[in-house]
């Protein structure tokens, strides 16, 4: 059996005394496209950096395509593409110089794709030939995406890749992601706070909370089964099947978030409501 592109077991990472990743287990299988969600500061960037070996972990193990991070072969490295949240481009180079530099490092470099993306994403002669530090934030982000896609990676890790793009740029990037990348069977991990983007590209979502993957599944299934159940404490005293969390509302009622059904749906005095992705995000990551 082909090993999964990402397998993390018991991964821990602390900054000072604060545990950011806490005994985290995570597996992303070949061809999966997973949206990674979590509140600001939940540790999404840290998780991506740790899984790519860009940041040392304090414990646990990471296998990429079955190889341990500390023994990753060049061939396996060449199967991975990454768009970081903050630009890590060589700012003193021009776009063309930087792409040439990376081309020399990858045995599989898709010149036609690079040319087509640069054309479509507005890189005219002037933009291709000026130092990257003089490109705008959105232009640098587009260039970073071109660099990550240029070697046709089999695993693509994207950390808020569209955060600096204008609506037209975002639409064009998402179209490329869906038609040019996901269609090819590429495994993708994609963090974003723009939930409409996520709904467009990611069939699966994973919620990072308290240093672990708190909930993961097919987006449609999670949304189909997610309900808010509200009623008096005497009817909702016991834990409900699929209960994720409960709280007290302002009027003293109990509000329970459940996953996987609609318990007590026909009970008088109990209200059962469906949840959208934004509601689910807020409830799961609260
Ligand atoms: N180098 C560092 N030193 C100390 N603390 C750090 C460092 N990098 C990140 N942190 C802290 O670790 C936590 C997780 O940060 P991280 O950037 O991984 O979160 P995130 O989920 O990606 O957030 P956002 O959604 O805002 O991008 C935050 O509290 C952050 O302040």
From TrEMBL:
Superkingdom to which the source organism belongs: Bacteria
PROSITE patterns reported in the protein's UniProt record: ABC_TRANSPORTER_1, ABC_TRANSPORTER_2
Pfam families in the cross-refs: ABC_tran (PF00005)
InterPro entries: AAA+_ATPase, ABC_transporter-like_ATP-bd, ABC_transporter-like_CS, ABC_Transporter_VariousFunc, P-loop_NTPase
Keywords tagged on the record: ATP-binding, Cell membrane, Membrane, Nucleotide-binding, Transport
Coiled coil regions in record: none
Domain named ABC transporter: residues: 6-235
Molecular-function GO terms, alphabetical: ATP binding; ATP hydrolysis activity
Gene3D superfamilies given in the database record: P-loop containing nucleotide triphosphate hydrolases
Stored PANTHER family: ABC TRANSPORTER ATP-BINDING PROTEIN ALBC-RELATED
Full protein name: ABC-2 type transport system ATP-binding protein
Annotated organism of origin: Massilia aurea
């Amino acid at each position: 059996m082909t090993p999964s592109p990402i397998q993390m077991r018991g991964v821990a990472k602390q900054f000072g005394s604060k545990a950011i990743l806490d005994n985290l287990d995570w597996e992303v299988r070949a061809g999966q496209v997973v949206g990674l969600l979590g509140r600001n500061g939940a540790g999404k960037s840290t998780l991506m950096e740790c899984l790519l070996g860009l940041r040392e972990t304090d414990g646990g193990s990471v296998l990429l395509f079955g190889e341990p991070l500390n023994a990753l072969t060049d061939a396996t490295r060449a199967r991975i593409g990454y768009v970081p949240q903050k630009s890590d481009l060589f700012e003193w180079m021009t776009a063309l110089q930087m792409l040439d530099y990376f081309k020399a490092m990858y045995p599989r470099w898709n010149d036609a794709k690079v040319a087509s993306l640069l054309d479509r994403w507005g890189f005219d002669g002037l933009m291709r030939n000026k130092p990257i530090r003089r490109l705008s934030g959105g232009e640098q982000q587009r260039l970073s995406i071109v660099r990550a896609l240029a070697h046709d990676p089999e695993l693509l890790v994207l950390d808020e890749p569209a955060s600096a793009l204008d609506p037209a740029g975002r639409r064009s990037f998402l179209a490329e992601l869906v038609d040019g990348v996901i269609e090819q069977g590429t495994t993708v991990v994609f963090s974003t706070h723009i939930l409409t983007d996520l709904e467009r590209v990611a069939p699966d979502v994973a919620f990072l909370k308290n240093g672990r993957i708190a909930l993961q599944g097919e987006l449609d299934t999670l949304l189909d089964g997610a309900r808010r159940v509200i009623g008096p404490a005497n009817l909702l005293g016991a834990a409900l099947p699929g209960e994720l969390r409960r709280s007290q509302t302002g009027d003293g009622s109990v509000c329970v978030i459940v996953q996987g059904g609609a318990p007590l749906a026909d009970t008088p005095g109990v209200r059962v409501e469906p949840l959208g992705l934004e509601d689910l995000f807020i409830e799961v990551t609260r």
